[in-house]
């Protein structure tokens, strides 16, 4: 029943084969969606090469640089998308960043620059990409972003990223309210801890994963592909009545008190 054939999906945030965005891209492809991929450009082209080689089996029809801290790059990316695709059905937002020094120590010591960077990349970028995608979602669409429990509860060594995720989750609700009349749905997936390039910056990530494996009802954490399955569901007609929600894909950990 889950069929995305004919749907065009833009996936952001793939860094390597451990990325949650990679798990999502694989499941969207398996469900029949045509893929567009963006990558974070760097001076030496290392990210482009790595991501291009990784996604090659998925045969993306669009492959573009997009640094979400650069409005010109965002505009250029969506102009390129509009020139190649007649529409956009799905936007996957898997972008988050904070300076490593702002993820540990005293939260009150967070620098102004560090706070602004975390909020800009991890939260504001969803608003900016949604605004760019909206004109292309002529037949409605689905926008899915990634959150984490640290946006609603205190998690050690998460600090400013928790504030960014809280802002992201509230942005999901405001965007859902704004875009709903155009049949554009906006949801977030709050995934359990997964060892990724991004999570490696969080001190004690392996301890967090082991704790979840001991406490979560399923006695394990989740995989990138399980998150990908949920994203594919949210992007399909099976989820046509769901918007403005944060779905926990964390083996049930969120429900536990102790």
Automatic annotation (TrEMBL):
**Pfam families according to UniProt:** adh_short_C2 (PF13561)
Q: Which CDD domains match?
A: ENR_SDR
Per the record, what are the reactions this protein catalyses? a 2,3-saturated acyl-[ACP] + NAD(+) = a (2E)-enoyl-[ACP] + NADH + H(+)
PANTHER family given for it?
ENOYL-[ACYL-CARRIER-PROTEIN] REDUCTASE, ENOYL-[ACYL-CARRIER-PROTEIN] REDUCTASE [NADH], CHLOROPLASTIC
Q: Where is the active site?
A: 148, 158
Taxonomic source organism: Limnofasciculus baicalensis BBK-W-15
Positions bound to substrate = 98
Which residues are noted in the entry as NAD(+)-binding? 13, 19-20, 95, 165, 194-198
Q: Pathway involvement?
A: Lipid metabolism; fatty acid biosynthesis
| Enzyme nomenclature, EC number | 1.3.1.9
Example GO molecular function: enoyl-[acyl-carrier-protein] reductase (NADH) activity
Report the sequence similarity comment from the record.
Answer: Belongs to the short-chain dehydrogenases/reductases (SDR) family. FabI subfamily.
The name this protein carries in UniProt is: Enoyl-[acyl-carrier-protein] reductase [NADH]
- Keywords tagged on the record: Fatty acid biosynthesis, Fatty acid metabolism, Lipid biosynthesis, Lipid metabolism, NAD, Oxidoreductase
- Tell me what gene encodes this: fabI
The answer, when asked if rRNA processing is one of the entry's keywords, is no
